[in-house]
Structure formats: structure tokens, C-alpha cells
Amino acid sequence: MLKEKLAPYNIILASGSPRRQQFFKDLDLDFEIRLKEVEEIYPEHLKSAEITEFLADLKSKPFDSELTEKDLLITSDTIVWLNNTALGKPKNYDEAFTMLKSLSNTTHEVITSISIKSLTFQKIISDSTLVYFKELSNEEIDYYINTYKPYDKAGSYGIQEWIGKIGIDKIEGSYFTVMGLPVHKLYKELMNL
After folding, report:
1. Are 111 and 81 in contact, with CB atoms under 8 Å apart?
2. Closest by Cα among 109, 115, 130 to 186
3. pTM check: above 0.85
4. Which of 18, 85, 120, 153 is the most buried if burial means most Cβ atoms within 10 Å?
């Protein structure tokens, strides 16, 4: 259904995330992956979804000069928002441990924004989900980091991995938003093109 709707377009997913790539396959879309390095720096005054919207847009900018009339570029960004602070991807073990310790026995928000861009328009959409973590022991955190090496994940965890299975009491919102792509919202926007 969506595949036929998007047949006139060349869909470009600008993401190295295996999870986002799998979501596009699951939607039965024909797409290509194009990657460009972007330094993910945002103005300090931005809060919550303003950050992910800014970064999703920032990731689209390097493609501006090469988009053709048929191209539809999709970029995305996810953060964990806790106590008025954005948790991005950890640089090392210590950062990962500190992040997970701060998420232990708390509720946080995971926010994902998507930019859909062509030569003639751009739309940015966002979604957020509340995640409730149980109290994690130091041993559980250590085991998870050493086994799963979550250095490519916002907030140092993947909900679909071991720590999500043993550590998350409940969520309010979309599971897929926590994984890095609110598929339901993306589908709706693409169907409305």
C-alpha cells in the first residue's frame, strides 16, 4: 500500500541505525541508505523535542545540494530526556554507567523526531514515550554495558535488548519511538504526501 503510494519517489534514509533500516524494510519500502557525517551539536537553550527536531533538520542539510525532484530524504534523531537534561550517546563505559545509574528507579521521556524533506518541502514530526525503569543494581548495569556495548544508543540502552526486558516496568506511548522511529507517525505522514 505505502510502497505503491511512494512509487514516484526515490526514498533516501540517512541513518546508519540498523533498527531504523529494519523499520523501513518492515514497511516494505524500497529505499537507499546514504550517510553523511554530521556533528550533532545544538544550541544550549533548546529543550526536549526542540533538540531532536533541530538535530533531525541538521542531519538533512548536507544533502540539500544533491536532492533531485524525485528524492524524498528522511533523517531522524532520538534523545532520552531526564530531569530537564538530554542524554545522548555515551562516549565510554563510565558515561554509559552514569547514564544508566541516573535512569535507574526513575521515569524518563524518550523523544524521536523525523524530518521528511524534498526539493520543495520539509516536514518535521516528533513523538515521545514515557519509560519507567525499575531500580537497577550496579551488577546489572555492568553486565549490560559489557555484554551489549550500548555506545550507539541514546541514554545508553536499547529497549529491545536485555536491559529493556529485565529493567523496564512499563511504558506510556510507542515502543518504536523508544527504539528510534515512531513508525506509526512516519507511515501516516508518508501516506498523506
Report:
1. yes
2. 115
3. yes
4. 153
